[in-house]
Design a protein that fits this description.
InterPro entries: Ferrochelatase, Ferrochelatase_C, Ferrochelatase_N. By secondary structure, the protein is of the alpha/beta class. Helix content is about 45%, strand content about 10%. The protein has a 4-stranded parallel β-sheet, with helices on both faces. A 4-stranded parallel β-sheet has the order 6-5-7-8, sandwiched between helices. Bound molecules: coproporphyrin III (HT9) and fe (ii) ion.
């Protein structure tokens, strides 16, 4: 049985290098037309070379696809699953061309990104539109499921993984351990332009409002009394351009000065433990914590948690039914970013 009205599911992700010789061409793809200093690029290249040029993100996409396929099969959802990346093979454009050759007409897609802002949402919609245009009139219709930041399928794995991380601290350090909810920094102008135009999200736009609510929800559901806060990581761009702060490393140093002895970082701005998590948290932030004599544990991101995988199917059903987006916060989430939504500034 096909799954009305769709005839395929498409995972759209970022892509990452899988060998040393992929690193520079990958970084060129990511930064084309972007204002990123050379030194930053050289530095980011080193993060990848440390892992023999292999980003974990493609393996994580393959694992997620395998989990989605078996979840679909178990629930009787008969949709072939395709995969296309914005910056590395399999490239989105080639996947859309393949779907056209396979006779696929209407596709439901998921971006590996939970929040609303230009880089996490609009850029995916724009790249899907460009890929369809390149294929021409035979290209399938492609609808994206909504940003899922406040769906229980995203929140519940985060709660569980935060609890697991707390359990990994020495027992006498657990009570009172600080939680640092970490998300990707973006330029403040991009943050302010995030979300639906005209909606009063407050300073930092939809992105900061969503991150603030999700940190509150996860720490509330944890049901333990840990001080928590929102921090940012992986800043890029020229120093003259303001990006969201505070940086995770700066906060770790402050907390140490204030007498904190144990910290759990929760990479809740990400769907999987890709390079920005394993390098920027597991290496850099861990080293900062070590220098300051603090215990440091990093929670897992949702990855292939069964609740997260089930969420994908639930959101496909939600989109198929044209139902109101269901979430655990009062923040609006649109299926299709309206015109002007999540614009760059
Ligand atoms: C919000 C956000 C997410 C999270 C949500 C989402 O997924 O959307 C994300 C994810 C990712 N970012 C990634 C890698 C990179 N991001 C870069 C640069 C940038 N990211 C930005 C934002 C985000 N990025 C921004 C505003 C820039 C500046 C340039 C621009 O204005 O667009 C650069 C260039 C070098 C540098 O500047 O760091 C690289 C290499 C990888 C792959 C990791 C791997 O290989 O495992 C992933 C999943
Ligand atoms: Fe990025």
């Amino acid at each position: 049985m096909p799954y009305e009205p769709y005839d395929a599911f498409l995972l759209v992700s970022f892509g990452g290098p899988e060998a040393n010789e992929d690193v520079i061409p990958f970084l060129e793809n990511v930064t084309r037309g972007r204002n990123i200093p050379r030194e930053r690029l050289a530095e980011v290249g080193q993060h990848y070379y440390l892992y023999d040029g292999v980003s974990p993100i493609n393996r994580q996409c393959r694992d997620l696809i395998a989990a989605i396929r078996s979840d679909f099969a178990g629930a009787g959802v008969d949709l072939p699953v395709y995969w296309g990346n914005r910056f590395w093979t399999p490239m989105l454009g080639e996947t859309v061309a393949q779907m056209a050759r396979d006779g696929i007409r209407r596709v439901v897609a998921m971006a590996t990104s939970a929040y609303s802002n230009y880089s996490s949402h609009r850029a995916y919609l724009d790249d899907i539109a460009a890929a369809r245009e390149a294929v021409g009139p035979d290209a399938p219709e492609i609808e994206l499921i909504r940003p899922f930041f406040d769906h229980p399928g995203f929140i519940e794995p985060l709660v569980e993984h935060t609890r697991d991380a707390l359990d990994r601290l020495p027992e006498d350090r657990r009570a009172g351990a600080h939680l640092l909810f970490s998300a990707h920094s973006i330029p403040t102008a991009m943050a302010e332009a995030s979300g639906a135009p005209g909606h009063a999200y407050g300073p930092g736009g939809a992105y900061v409002a969503q991150l603030t609510e999700v940190a509150r929800l996860v720490s509330e559901r944890l049901g333990e009394d840990h001080p928590y806060e929102l921090v940012y990581q992986s800043r890029s761009g020229p120093p003259s351009q303001p990006w969201l702060e505070p940086d995770v490393n700066d906060r770790l140093a402050d907390l140490a000065r204030q007498g904190a002895t144990a910290v759990v970082t929760v990479p809740y701005g990400f769907v999987s433990d890709h390079m920005e998590v394993v390098y920027d948290l597991d290496n850099e932030a861990r080293e900062t914590a070590r220098e300051h004599g603090m215990h440091f544990v990093r929670a897992l991101s949702p990855g292939t948690h069964p609740r997260f995988v089930a969420m994908v199917r639930e959101l496909v059903a939600e989109r198929a039914a044209g139902a109101e987006p269901f979430g655990l916060t009062a923040l609006p989430a649109c299926h299709d970013c309206p015109e002007g939504c999540c614009s760059q500034r």
